[in-house]
C-alpha cells in the first residue's frame, strides 16, 4: 500500500502501489474544474473527463468529493463495461482507517441497502419482459391511429375533435412514460438499444429532444429535491419550495405574492403547457442562489445546456413528428386548425404530467444538500401512491416512486415485487415509507405550495 497521497498528484501508474487519501484531502477537490469522487473506496479525478460524461458534467459533478458508489451502481447497467472508462481516472484509494462514507452516515443502512439490491438482482428483478413493453408501444400506436380515424370518419366537428384531442393526449402521456423507461435503460439489455428507441419515442412520437430530457432528469435522480442540483425544484423566483421560502422571506425578497402561489400555480400551467416540453423546461439559477465558486454565467449556461446543444438526430426526429402531425391533420383543419389541435393536446398532456410527477416530490423535504447516503436521500424526497391497475397505468408506475428512485434501471413491472423488501428495510432502520391515496397526493401539491408561501410571508413580515 502506498503512502498518503497529496492533492494534485497524477493518475496512478499500472502495477504501482496506489496512493491513499483521507476524506479531508478529498473534500478539497469539489470545485469547478477540480473534482474528485470515490467509488468502491477508490478515488478518481474526473476534473477533465467530466465534460465527456454521457450524462453531462453537472450530473457527475454533483457527487464531487463524495462516495458515489451507490449512485454509480444505480445509474449503470453493465458495471464492468463502465469501469473500463474509470480506470484511466484512478488516482488512489481511501486510506484503510478511513470510513467508506464521509460524514455522519449510517454504515449499517448502507450495507443493508446494498444487500437488498443484491437480493433484487438475484431475483432477476432487473430483467425486463419484452412483451410488457411491446404492449405499451402497441397501445400507444393504436391510440395515434384511433385519433386520426375519429376525425377521418366523423369529420372535424367539436365533439370528434375533443375526443381526438383526448386520445392523442393519452397517447402522448403514455409515450412520455415509455421514453422514461428507455431513458433509464430499463427495457433492453444493451444501453445503445435503449438510447435509439428513446430517440424514436421521444422524437417521432412526442417531438422533443431525448438529450434534453436526460440532461435534466438524471440530475433529478442523482440529487432529488436538492436546490441547484435538482432542476425540478430550482424554480425560484416563480415558486418557492421548502427552505427557499425561509431564505426569501429573511432576505425580504418579493418578486411575486408567494403566499398566493398555490393559486397562481393553476394560472401558470395553462399558458406554459404548450410552449415547452412538460419534462424539460430550462431552469436558470437566480443570481442570489448560485453555488459558491460558480459565476452566474457559468450556472446559466449549464442550466440550459441541453436546450442549446441537442444532437442533430434529436432535431431530425422532432422534425419528423411535426411533419407527420401536420400532414395528418392539416387536410381536415387547415394549418391554423391543426396547430390549435396540437396546442390542445399539449395542454392536456402537460397537466397530466405535472400532477403525476409532482405528487411524489413537492410534498416531501426540499432544501439544500444534506450529504446523505443514497437510500436516505431518495426516501426523504419521494413517496408512493396506493397502487391499482388503473393508477399503475395512468402514472406509468411512478406511483411506486420510492422503488423507482432507489432502483432507476429496474423495469417498472417489477416495482410491486421489490416493494416489500424496501418496506422491510425502512422498518428496520426507522425510515419513512409513505404511501397515500391518489386524490390525497394531488391535493397535497396545493397544500405544500400554500404552506411554503405562508412560511415565506411570516419570515418576510417578521424579519
TrEMBL record:
GO cellular component: a single term: endoplasmic reticulum membrane
Alphabetical keyword list: Fatty acid biosynthesis, Fatty acid metabolism, Lipid biosynthesis, Lipid metabolism, Membrane, Transmembrane, Transmembrane helix
Record region (Disordered): 1-20
Family matches, as InterPro entries: Cyt_B5-like_heme/steroid-bd (IPR001199), Cyt_B5-like_heme/steroid_sf (IPR036400), FA_desaturase_dom (IPR005804), Fatty_acid_desaturase (IPR012171)
Membrane-crossing residue ranges in chain numbering: 321-345
Name the record gives this protein: Fatty acid desaturase 3 isoform X1
Primary subcellular site in the record, as a coarse category: endoplasmic reticulum
GO biological processes: unsaturated fatty acid biosynthetic process
Subcellular localization, as worded in the UniProt entry: Endoplasmic reticulum membrane
Keyword Ribosomal protein recorded: no
Pathway listed: Lipid metabolism; polyunsaturated fatty acid biosynthesis
